[in-house]
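Report of the visiting student (M.T.), summer placement. My assignment was to run the structure pipeline on a short list of targets and document each run. The first record concerns Cobalt ECF transporter T component CbiQ.
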Amino acid sequence: MPTEERDWSVPPIADAIFDSVINRWDVRCKIVTILVFSFAIASLKHLTPALVAIGISSLVILIAKTSFAKALLRLLAIAGFISMFLIVMPFSVPVHSNDTVIIFGKMDWLVFNLRGLLLAATIAAKAVAITLLMEPLLSTAPLPVTLHGLSKLGVPEMAGQMVLLSYRYLHVFRHEARRMSSGMQVRGFRKHTNIQTLRAVANFLGMLLVRSFERTERVFDAMRARGYKGRFPEPAELHLKTSDLLITALWLSAGSALIIFDRIICQG
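After the run finished, the structure tokens were exported:
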């Protein structure tokens, strides 16, 4: 089976390459703190604090020694969604008495509201800041350790096992689909808009499901033969240290400072 590049958007199975403060941070504290910090960013109402949040997220990526390229790829995934806000909201936000608007010639029905643009930019900045935080959250710990931390926080352990097994074997099923597709093309199959193509595609999907189910049974039998009884061995022992609490306190202080800056300074 040819090797395939792993999916960059999810945590690695093996240990992370770089060692940093974020890598050594207890995964339970990291998950809770970054999620709380993300909610703090989402609650911001002004553009300037949202831009500061982007700076904080970028600084965290530097500290974690993770890839800026991967973070930009995550931003690319939401670029279309954010662009729609920037395009639609300036024309759709209701006009208030103190708003600055731009009217295009004699088209009174087409009003460009600068307040709507500012609101859209604020939403976009918050989305960028939160998306950038996902890179240090996901890339600074192996996937089994992250899922183990979630189970310690109360997430059902079976859900974590399902995610882990799906990650491990999804690329196997993808390779199986490619192999079957190549076999069909070698036998002369070409896609057309007719009933024969629909029948061939239906047979292809049915056979893929059957083979995937058979592979799943073999994997489960192999797991039971190795002593699986509903739980995986713990991938790491989690020990809460004083440094973990200090980092958590620093993060929460930064989130509180952002909210104070947004609510008191900017609004005042």
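The chain has a mean pLDDT of 84. Residues 157-225 form one domain. I thank the supervising group for their guidance throughout the placement.
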